[in-house]
Amino acid sequence: MSELLWVVIRQDDNGNRYRVGRYATREEAERIADALDARGHRQLYVVERIDQRAS
């Protein structure tokens, strides 16, 4: 099983952040973030790497 080290975060207009999903590669996470962003909503979607030392 591969580790899911990349996360897509949705940030709304009030600064609240919500995890959308975790992914094995940065490329996969960026594809998801780009697809969500293309919907035209005002939320910001960002890709971040999960710090394994913090878990």
Any chance you could write out the topology, listing elements then pairs?
Elements: E1 6-11, E2 17-23, H1 26-37, E3 44-49
Antiparallel strand pairs: 1-2, 1-3
Structure, described:
The protein is α+β, with helices and mostly antiparallel strands and 55 residues long. Helices cover 22% and strands 35% of the residues. It is built from one helix and three strands; from the N terminus they run E-E-H-E. The protein has one helix at 26-37, and strands at 6-11, 17-23, 44-49. It has a three-stranded antiparallel beta sheet, covered by helices on one side. A hairpin with a 5-residue loop joins strand 1 (6-11) and strand 2. The model has no long low-confidence stretch (mean pLDDT 89).
Structure in a nutshell:
The chain is of the alpha+beta class. The chain has one helix at residues 26-37; strands spanning 6-11, 17-23, 44-49.
